[in-house]
Amino acid sequence: MEHTEFNNDLLQFLNASPTPWHAVNTMKERLEASGFERLDERDEWALEQGKSYYAIRNGSSIIAFRTGKKGAENSGIRMVGAHTDSPCLKVKPNPEVRRKGYFQLGVEVYGGVLLNPWFDRDLSLAGRVTVLDEHGKVQDVLIDFKKPVAIIPSLAIHLDREANSNRSVNAQTDLPPLLMQASETETFSDLLKEQIANESGLKARKVLGYELSFYDAQDAALVGLREDFLASARLDNLLSCYIGLQSLLDTSGDEAALLVCNDHEEVGSVSAEGAQGPFLGEVLERWCGAGKGRAIARSMMISADNAHGVHPNFIDKHDENHGPILNQGPVIKVNHNQRYATNSRSAALYRHISDELGLPHQTFVVRSDMGCGSTIGPLTAANLGVTTLDIGVPQFAMHSIRELIGVQDGFTLYQVLKEFMQREEML
């Protein structure tokens, strides 16, 4: 895969994945097209060496792996981890808000959302809906309106003279998106049943529940005078999901390799399908059996999650020796208080592979007077006892509705992770 092909395919992946459920479904389709076999957690597994498999939990987390030709307990597993969720606005269970003939939906803030950029954007709506179909069967269906169906209008500056100097956002009162002007008889459930019928032909008798998110209807795009950058929603962290997926798909399959993409990282990872849950450990147990401990002792995890590039307008927000620049390589993330799981040995292996390939890399350490975010890296390292590296592509506007990366860095990380996943010797 070449640089231009990589980014063009990345754009398609991002546009097809407005929610964790859609992202997992997109990955599932690509895995199956490459010969990966689906495993059902409810069934017995009979795994074979040299084969490729995947498992899905809750529709929003996925683990895909190649068993390799030598046995994981003998060669270790080359693991890459990412997360499928992104900060967003999720629709409340009883969402209808009717004022002055306008139809709005109440929303709950999911994760650490940068709220101001959500105003005056064309918004669409997507997610999972659980329905009772016409035959009395409970079904989950994915929906995606794929067009602008809502907007959160700003208050005019004439009515808020301090908007440019002292603007705050009340998540309860300021954020309900405006969908339409509607009569009192139109309901949100009716709109969902109509959309389900339009998308899948399924006639839903009743909407039993949903997990729906608003998202930016503007497609991902290359931007900049020379197209140095790629702008999109959900780069944190669908970019890493895509890189990990492509790395796994393009490996030789000789060595045992695994990709895990967990949901709920943005809210702490405490769920059945989150990184603090048992999903990865249970898959490894069923794969390796009594050899699980030996396999983990020979394994390494690379937790891929985007890093903060040094913003040219806010240079003082970075340590002066650790300000990653876009398009100058992926960023090894270090925090000695274990907000990142990187240690000198795991960082050394990445640097060694990167140097062998002639590819750039950078290092990030947060300013000593600022707090540090975290990733699935420390959680996975603690749960499994596996040597772990935290790394990511540098970006601007993290947790905004539209984020920005350099066009070189994702492809660089892909090349290193591909080599890592098929490397015979790791540590």
The helix count comes to: 10
CATH architecture term of the largest domain: 3-Layer(aba) Sandwich
Task: Point out poorly predicted stretches.
Answer: none
CATH C-level label of the largest domain: Alpha Beta
Could you state the CATH homologous superfamily of the largest domain? Zn peptidases
Task: Provide mean pLDDT, rounded.
Answer: 95
Would you list the SSEs in sequence order as H and E? Answer: HHEEEHEEEEEEHEEEHEHHEEEHEHEEEH
Number of structural domains: 2
- Going by helix content, strand content and strand pairing, the class is alpha/beta
Biggest sheet details: 9 strands, mixed
Helicity range: 25-40%
Strand order of the largest sheet: 1-2-3-13-4-14-18-16-17
Report the sheet-strand fraction: 25-35%
Q: Give the termini separation.
A: 27 Å
Query: Number of DSSP strands?
Result: 20
- CATH fold topology of the largest domain: Aminopeptidase
Tell me the Rg in angstroms: 22 Å
Specify the overall morphology. globular
General description of the model:
By secondary structure, the chain is α/β, with parallel strands linked by helices. Helix content is 26%, strand content 27%. The protein folds into 2 domains: 273 residues, Zn peptidases (Aminopeptidase), CATH 3.40.630.10; 129 residues, Aminopeptidase i, Domain 2, CATH 2.30.250. The chain has a 9-stranded mixed beta sheet with strand order 1-2-3-13-4-14-18-16-17, sandwiched between helices. The longest helix has 15 residues. The model has no long low-confidence stretch (mean pLDDT 95).
